[in-house]
C-alpha cells in the first residue's frame, strides 16, 4: 500500500480507502447488500493489505453501515482512520437533515454511538444546505473539533466557490479548517477539473474520490446489450449523469489498455485516478472479496505516459468560460520564458 498526507495536515491515509456504503440492507437493494460475515471478510482483507482509511455515512442503510463498520473494526479502531458524513436525511422529522448546529450536534452524537467510538477522525458534511447560514455550519464543526469529538473536518459535493468562502471564513476566525474535499471523479465524470481541483491545489485541500468507477459503469461488466437488465446495479441506482454511448466508447479504449497490462478495465480506471497529482485517496467500495482483490492490485499498476495521454484526450471535459478564455489569452512569451 502507498500512503499520503491528507491535504495540509499530518493525517496519513492510504491511497486506497475502503468505502462501507454497501454494508447492511435497505431500500436500495442493489447498493445495501453486504451482510455481517461478508463485511468482516472485506474489512479483514483491507486491513491486511495496508488500508487504514475507512469511509461511511450516517445515511447509509439507515445507520447500519456505521454500526457494522464500528463493530467489525473492534480493537483495531486505533489503527484506522474513520471518516463519516452528515447532512442527508436520516429520519422523517423536519430537523433530521441538513447542516444546522442542532442537526450536526445530534448527528455527530448518533454516529459516535453507532461506530462505538469516542471520536471521529474525519467528519464530512455530505452536501450543501441552502437553508442554513454557512457561518452556523462552520461554527458548529469548529465546536465539535474543540470538544474532541472530531479530529479533522471535510466537505463533500460542494462547489468550489462555497468551499473557498468557507475556508476564508475559517482562517479569519481561527476555526478548524477543511483539510479534505470528497468529490465524484472518474474517467466519464471530470467536471471537478474546471474549478474544484485548481481550488484544492491552491488551498492545500486533499481530494478523496467517491464512485471512481462511475457507479460501476467503468468496471467493464456492462455492455450495450445488458445495460438495462433488471438485475444489475445500474438499473436500480443510476444517478451519475453521462452519455452512456460515449461512455461505451471510452470503455472500448479502456479495455484495449487493460489487455496490454493483462488487468481489468476497473483497474485501468482506478490507476488513471491514482496517477492524477491532486488525488489523495480513492474510495473503493466492494461487495465481494474478488472485487476488493482486484482493486488492491491497482496500487502497483503504472500506466505509461502514452496511455495516460490517450485516456486524457479521449475524456477531456469541454472547457467552460472563463477557463477557455484564460487559456486562449495566456501570454506565450512569458510562459516560455518562465519554463
TrEMBL record:
<dbReference type="InterPro" id="IPR023210">
    <property type="entry name" value="NADP_OxRdtase_dom"/>
</dbReference>
<protein>
    <submittedName>
        <fullName>Aldo/keto reductase</fullName>
    </submittedName>
</protein>
<keyword id="KW-0560">Oxidoreductase</keyword>
<dbReference type="InterPro" id="IPR050523">
    <property type="entry name" value="AKR_Detox_Biosynth"/>
</dbReference>
<dbReference type="GO" id="GO:0005829">
    <property type="term" value="C:cytosol"/>
</dbReference>
<dbReference type="InterPro" id="IPR036812">
    <property type="entry name" value="NAD(P)_OxRdtase_dom_sf"/>
</dbReference>
<dbReference type="InterPro" id="IPR020471">
    <property type="entry name" value="AKR"/>
</dbReference>
<feature type="domain" description="NADP-dependent oxidoreductase">
    <location>
        <begin position="15"/>
        <end position="314"/>
    </location>
</feature>
<dbReference type="Pfam" id="PF00248">
    <property type="entry name" value="Aldo_ket_red"/>
</dbReference>
<dbReference type="GO" id="GO:0016491">
    <property type="term" value="F:oxidoreductase activity"/>
</dbReference>
